[in-house]
Amino acid sequence: MVRLSALDAAATLLLALALAQCPSALSNSDMRRPEGADALLAPPPLATEDHVVFGQEVSATSSSASGNGWSFESAGSWHIWSHQSLFDNINLPLWPEAMKEARIVLSSGMCRADTARPLPPFMPAAGLEHCGSHILATARSDVPTGVPLAIARVQMRRWLAQFMGWGDAPDSVLGPAAFISLGNSSIYHFHPFAAKAINRGADSRLDLAALAVGPHHYLRTIAPQVTYRGRQWLDNYRIEAQLQRTAHGFVKLSVQAISLLPAAPEVSIEPLDNATSRIAWIGPTKDSVSFMLAGSQARPEALRLPAGLFDGAHARSLGEVTARIADFASFHPSIKVSANFPEKPVTALESCRVNTLLALPRAYFFDPYQLHQHYDDRQLDAEYQHFGRVELEKPAEAVPSWGSLLVLAQEPRQQQQLNVTVPIHARYRLPPIHEPTVGYHGEPAGTSHVDLTLPPPISAVVCPADRSQSGAADESIVSKLRIRLAVFDELGLDPVGPLQIAPDTDMLLRMPVPDTRHATLIQASTLSLLFAGALFIVHSTYQRTSLSA
To answer: How many whole angstroms separate alpha carbon 289 and alpha carbon 301?
Structure first.
């Protein structure tokens, strides 16, 4: 039997999401949680809860043994769970007046070697969101640009740093300065997940329960529990938590968790207490029978699906993108990106472009002044937007932000291939170097370089997002299937279709680092040269003064 029990407390789910980035969130006094373990487990009132099961074979068999839930048989399915709740500001840092919303997205799509089951047609393709944790906040649209928006971004940085349990240190790697500005009015932090960890086993996946340290930790009671062959884990594909403040001063929490459920003769779902709960079954094709059942219903009712739900616009790849690093072992490598179209796919998309997202960790940087010069000289055949701190001389260890992001935009103009070369630069490193070192040619015993792999490029045909439909919120169960892609949504872009990452893409960088064996000698030599230079300047100045006298 597979048993899935929903969360007992909505607010503490956010703490679990915070722990995915930084376990120290539990000790954050700014969260102003009530004292005592019993108070931590007290759930806030919940409004709605929706379960959607999508699979090749979905058949309801009976209600759960408790009479307050559902049981069904599945040959392996996708499970999309969402709920909304309201809770008081006292559970959070003081909400900034200028902040519209905050989002936390934990995405594993681009890390997975094999998802085991095809994505549902209404879900975006895996190649549209970097694998890792995305932490974002956006200011209200009525905040004026200039100084008011700059102040709003400072306030949002402080709020998110407190919420994540990072503290307020201005130069800390995990603090307000860790966020970069994004788009017109957002801030952004990205932390990649390790692909090997995602694919290694169930205990290394996005399982919130696995974040608990001890057997009596309260996270054991609030994370979704799945019991399968004696193990408790939930194979989460994507989790998003969105926070918005209501007109009455409450904070509205919306959570969406997309998971893979294994094949089992009986899957049991137990709904939340004090919540309006519904469950829907959606078949694999538009001709399949789909139906919905609310907690108070004895029999399911037919579920009408939108005509475009099975269009699969995001599922079809429009081409292929290849990225390789030139001079990968130098201080000044470059990224060569090539987008290839087997056909001419954008003839009917006159207002759309091919956008490519390149992310760099703080050990490397884009030089915006060099990019501007290359663009003016037509050496950079793409329009670009650079987001991140411009710290050209600081060592990597002194840069507080996570890194930087470059968004390239190209017009296909009936071409079947688009090429662009982006120069990047390595920051110098301060000893000691804690990462494993290698030689110039990758020798394991070498000490001159450190290997790191950049996230692969995200490349897609994108169009300006249509915001005309952002009226009253749609509370239908199908509306809960909508996924807001990290970064794309904040940039106001709507991907029409992705470009698959080519198998020969290679994002390996071999970064030169100081040899710690010679660090003492280098420091002594540097001080000696500085001292000798200072003596030479003093001596030369003295001689010139004496001659002039």
So the answer is: 10
Residue in 137, 127, 125, 69 with CA at minimum distance from that of residue 98: 137
- pLDDT tens string 118-131: 888 888 888 899 99
CB atoms within 10 A of CB 157: 23
For residue 204, what are its two tokens?
Answer: 């290394």
Q: State yes or no: pLDDT of 44 exceeds 60.
A: no
For the chain, the distance separating the N- and C-terminal CA atoms, rounded to the nearest angstrom, is 99
Determine the length of the chain. 549
Q: What pLDDT, on a 0 to 100 scale, did the predictor assign at position 223? A: 46
Residue 57 has a pLDDT of: 58
Beta strand spans in 303-363 (E): 319-326, 334-340, 353-361
3-state secondary structure of 417: strand
What percent of the chain clears pLDDT 90, i.e. is strictly above it?
28
3-state secondary structure of 40: helix
Q: Enter the pTM of the model.
A: 0.83
* Residues 6 or more apart whose Cβ sits within 8 Å of residue 101: 137, 138, 242, 243, 244
CB proximity list for 533: less than 8 A, separation 6 or greater:
none
- Sign, CA torsion 329/505/411/137: negative
- The phi, psi pair for 479, rounded to 5°, reads -65, -25
Give the per-residue SS3 of 362-408: CCEECCHHHHHHHHHCCCCCCEEEEEECCCCCCCHHHCCCCEEEEEE
CA 353 from centroid of its chain's CA atoms: 23
Instruction: Give the separation between CA 245 and CA 518, rounded to whole angstroms.
Output: 55
HSE-CB at 306 with a 13 A cutoff on CA atoms is: 14
Q: Any bridge partners for residue 422, and if so which? A: 335
Q: How far is CA 395 from CA 363, 430, 450, in A?
A: 8, 7, 15
